[in-house]
Amino acid sequence: MTTRLYTHPIFLEHLTPPGHPERPDRLRAIERVLDDEAFAGLDRIQAPEGDEATILYAHPADFVARVRAAIPDEGIARIDADTTASPKSWQAAIPDEGIARIDADTTASPKSWQAAITAIGAANAAVDDVFSGRADNVFVAARPPGHHAEKTTAMGFCLFNTAAIAARYAQKKHGVERVAVVDWDVHHGNGTQDIFWDDPSVLYCSTHQMPLYPGTGAKTETGAGNIVNAPLAPQTGSEVFRDAFLSRVLPALDNFAPDLIIISAGFDAHHRDPLAEINLTEDDFDWATGQLMQRAARHSGNRLVSLLEGGYDLQGLAFSVAAHVGRLMKG
Fold this sequence. Notes:
This protein is of the alpha/beta class. It has helices spanning about 25-35, 60-70, 110-130, 160-175, 190-195, 240-255, 280-300, 315-330; strands spanning about 5, 45, 75-80, 105-110, 135-140, 180-185, 200-210, 225-230, 260-265, 305-310. It has eight helices and ten strands. The chain has an eight-stranded parallel β-sheet with strand order 2-1-5-10-9-6-7-8, sandwiched between helices. Strand 6 (about 180-185), helix 5 and strand 7 (about 200-210) form a beta-alpha-beta unit. The N and C termini lie close together (about 5 Å).
């Protein structure tokens, strides 16, 4: 089993204000844990810069232009969003002085465009890898995250929806008929759901805490029959999470029989995470990874691409990523 890792120093240069949970130290924690000799077999590749035209696979041109125009020449700007919700009241500690008032929680700095484009490039390269046979599966350690970015709205720390772009890229570049996106971030991937709402060629499955930001993800939200939400009540843990996988996510995958599985791999459902109240451990992410690998082997020729989303406690994030990547490598 060949597992490839994409990352790039540019991801550290997407800067956020002091006190912001989506910070460069997240990737530093991942880099440290993956430096262990247990991960010596990882095929480590520097992420390539993406083709900007592929953003249009998931977002309209005027939205892309608005995001690009919002990137500051210096300092930190906040990206405008049509929402009043926010993941946490951390913003209260952040001074507004010197920050363009763009949005409550989604920020950009001078290198954010390049970071976002490189995250897209890495995700698309990962798709190429699993279809060419260069890798069985790939983990992309990138930021900013993407699953909250709707067709025309940047929000929830996300500028562009990397997972959605990668799914569309697989369809356009490799002729894939069916792509499944499985999202276990503790926050519902409203952006991915929005983009694929009426598209039965893409299955979107999500486990997430509810109620919680962004307020979407009820079981009744089913799109064109291709949306499977499995909301989890606050303070629940492994048993409820695993039951949601076994009763809702995995049967949906088996019925859909995808040609490719993309994971929106957020690790903020870990019990240490400050932005939510789900009590998972790294063993749960190991287990869920193994379950999705079984479905990839059954339906997708082992083709699985995992994209980092959330996870804001550095220890919980590092241990969870280690479990996830370790399982990908074991097969």
